[in-house]
Amino acid sequence: MARGKAKRAGAAKKPKAKAANKPLKPIELYYWPTPNGFKISIMLEECKLPYTMIPVNISKGEQFKPDFLKISPNNRMPAIVDPTGPGKRPISMFESGAILQYLGRKTGKFYPSDERARVEVEQWLFWQIGGLGPMAGQVNHFKHYAREILPYAIARYVDEVNRLYGVMNIRLKDREFLAGKYSIADMACVGWTNLWERQGQDIEQFPHLKRWLETVKARPAVQRGMALGRELRKGIDMKDPKVQAVLFGQRARAG
After folding, report:
1. Please, which residues have CB within 8 angstroms of residue 49's CB and are 6 or more apart in sequence?
2. CA neighbor of 210 nearest in space, from 137, 218, 33, 36
3. What is the pTM of this model?
4. Is residue 83 within 8 Å of 106, Cβ to Cβ?
5. Which of the residues 23, 64, 121, 227 has the least number of beta carbons within 10 Å of its own beta carbon?
6. 132-162 residue pLDDT tens
């Protein structure tokens, strides 16, 4: 009897079956089809993360709605809400560069953990955020939307975008992508450089940039990201005074 009891006491317990990994809840992407919006839609597609696109019609002023301002206090899209954020708790985020970095850390993709490699990515990411995007945006405004033709303003920003294209062209002379390997820096730039003609540039002057642009645009995830919500812009007249008042006539708001 004692031997039998000892045997039962020491019998190996069957291991408990591991709980199946629950699928990630979709990230909420607050979005409008613009070069800044494309940055995040491309990254989500590249990382194969589940997401739900929530349109923010900037021509109608939806970016000023109180619920959106809780997520993006700068009343700009894109923004995200990740239901499975740090500590498995929801987190909201605005500013495209910060979102790209967050998604890169979350997935371990397109944003290296090695410090030297990360520096390479970050400097070109912030180059886009501080230079290419704002300057190209000013070209777009003064060439296509300004009610008054201002030759000085147009020339000023066309020339600056031309200079930036030259910087990018030289950088890409001896490497396939901006930071060596394909990264969030490339995703940040592709939507802006894709508008080279609208920005008054001749892509043939920048052969390395042209090769890079064709390479990045050939990626299926980039194509899906840049196609997202394309139909939303149909029928919107950007020269409509009401639309321009929403987009270009804003001043500081009281709390």
Report:
1. 24, 27, 103, 107
2. 218
3. 0.89
4. no
5. 23
6. 999 999 999 999 999 899 999 999 999 999 9
